[in-house]
Automatic annotation (TrEMBL):
InterPro entries: RELM, Resistin-like_sf. This is Resistin. It comes from Engystomops pustulosus. Belongs to the resistin/FIZZ family. PANTHER family: RESISTIN. SUPFAM superfamilies: Resistin. The keyword Metal-binding does not apply.
Length: 103
């Protein structure tokens, strides 16, 4: 039992040391690769507000978030480009819509 416990502690310590070093450098590597390739990639976003429970993004845009009137915090995104507020009697629904702007 004692051996089991100390082996576990050793394993945990090793996991902490390794876990601290490796993901960090992997993270940096991925970041530098991404920034090399996507430095010029930009997001173009618009805000659409509608006086119903639905708000549609313009063609080519994807909904990234929604806001609802009447302090309603329950919403979902339908077909990736339509914001839907789930509360009854919604007075307005807003969608934040973004698309990639290629250089
Ligand atoms: C506003 O809602 C109406 C009714 O659902 C819909 O027909 C219209 O396309 C919506 N407009 C926008 C900009 O989402």
């Amino acid at each position: 039992m004692k051996f089991y416990v100390s082996a576990l502690v050793l394993l945990l310590a090793a996991a902490l040391v390794i876990g601290h070093d490796v993901p960090c450098s992997v993270d940096e590597t991925i970041k530098s690769i991404l920034s090399q390739h996507y430095a010029k990639l930009e997001l173009e976003c618009v805000f659409v507000k509608n006086a119903t429970a639905y708000s549609n993004c313009p063609e080519g845009y994807t909904a990234t978030g929604c806001s609802c009137g009447s302090a309603c915090g329950s919403w979902d995104i339908q077909s990736s480009n339509v914001c839907h507020c789930q509360c009854a009697n919604m007075d307005w629904t807003a969608a934040r819509c973004c698309r990639m702007k290629l250089p």
